[in-house]
Design goal:
Blueprint: E1 7-8, H1 19-26, H2 39-51, E2 56-60, H3 63-74, E3 80-84, H4 88-91, H5 96-101, E4 104-108, H6 118-124, E5 135-141, H7 154-166, E6 170-174, H8 178-185, H9 189-192, E7 198-202, E8 213-217, H10 219-231, H11 240-252, H12 257-272, E9 277-279, E10 286-291, H13 296-305, E11 308-309, E12 311-312, E13 317-321, H14 328-344
Length: 345
């Protein structure tokens, strides 16, 4: 890799479709998805549902829409949704559930692994009362973005889901990177999400598609989700051109996530040897740097000057994410450039 070429570690959403994926897209058989007759979309939805052990699935343009459609399908206005204080739905989806769904989001503290304390969930569930919202849904996340890509074990999901279900609430799992969790934990995605009523996952992150997410769950819920998708403007037409990329990714890009995890460990180990940062061993493909010397903004600028792109990630924290378009040689080069930035500071 040349010294002038940028190494983009801002997110695994920056990947470009490779030649094989582009061929699949170019050759896709298409129809009108709103009428339900796009064969490539139908194939993707069937594959996705089977892969995570659910009855049905619906293809949507983004992970944010997948989660919003899930919330809308599980709830009615004035309901309350329990979720983690560090969750993507609560922090990074523009309060869509509140504005569009008319529901109240009630955040509970996330633990370091991205889970919730069972006693917190029990205490937050409301008894039926004229004056209070109905506890209708519990949302979990796996892997957990803000908690550094931690994997939520199946047993933890089962325990939390059991509490919600006993109270008559549904369970949705934001599984944007569920296949990273599968590969890292050597546990099938279907097992990791079995306790959740619905699960969404992104095709445009580690699976390296240009666009799209899938929401999976019971057939009745997915029927409602299709209506919500249409209301949000997510009803696409010849979407098979995009869905073909998802089919290709599910067939070819899951096992290779292990490479991203190995590269993340190499990156973290190298960064940890430099004085200005504290770095924890990543569980998957997300590396979090805590700045010990200097400022977050100063280091982001210094990295950028050396051709390494990263993002701010909370007070005093920087995030780097490994992905398909950054190989082991590029990680070594990124570390060399960052070392130069540190030496020049």
């Amino acid at each position: 890799m040349s010294d002038t070429q940028s190494i983009d570690l801002r997110s695994d959403t920056v990947t470009q479709p490779d030649a094989a994926m582009r061929r699949a897209m170019a050759g896709a058989e298409v129809g009108d998805d709103v009428f339900g007759d796009d064969p490539s979309v139908n194939r993707l939805e069937a594959m996705a549902a089977e892969r995570v052990g659910k009855e049905a699935a619906v293809y949507v343009p983004s992970g944010t829409m997948a989660n919003l459609v899930a919330v809308l399908s599980h709830t009615r206005p004035t309901d309350e949704v329990l979720l983690g204080s560090q969750s993507h739905i609560f922090n990074a989806e523009v309060a869509g559930s509140a504005r569009i769904g008319g529901v109240q989001l009630r955040p509970l503290p996330n633990d370091a692994g991205g889970g919730l304390d069972e006693s917190d969930v029990e205490a937050a569930i409301r008894e039926p009362n004229l004056h209070t919202p109905r506890t209708a849904l519990l949302c979990l996340e796996n892997t957990h973005n803000s908690c550094g890509g931690q994997v939520l074990p199946a047993a933890k999901t089962e325990a939390l889901a059991a509490i919600a279900r006993e109270a008559g609430a549904g369970v949705h799992l934001d599984g944007a990177r569920i296949f990273n969790a599968e590969v890292a934990s050597e546990t099938p995605a279907a097992e990791l999400v079995a306790a959740a009523d619905s699960v969404s996952f992104c095709l445009s992150k580690g699976l390296a598609c240009p666009v799209g997410s899938v929401l999976c769950g019971p057939s009745e819920l997915i029927d409602r989700a299709r209506r919500e998708r249409k209301m949000l403007g997510g009803g696409m037409r010849q979407a098979g051109v995009l869905a073909a990329a998802g089919v290709h990714a599910l067939e070819h890009n899951i096992e290779r996530l292990a490479e991203d995890h190995a590269n993340a460990r190499t990156l973290a180990e190298g960064l940890g040897r430099l004085g200005p940062f504290a770095v924890e061993t990543p569980a998957t493909n997300i590396v979090i740097l805590r700045v010990l010397e200097g400022t977050r903004e100063g280091w982001l600028a210094a990295f950028a000057d050396q051709g390494v792109r990263a993002v701010p990630f909370g007070a005093g924290r920087i995030r780097m994410v490994t992905h398909k378009d950054v190989d082991a040689a590029a990680i070594d080069e990124a570390l060399r450039r960052i070392e130069q930035a540190v030496a020049a500071a």
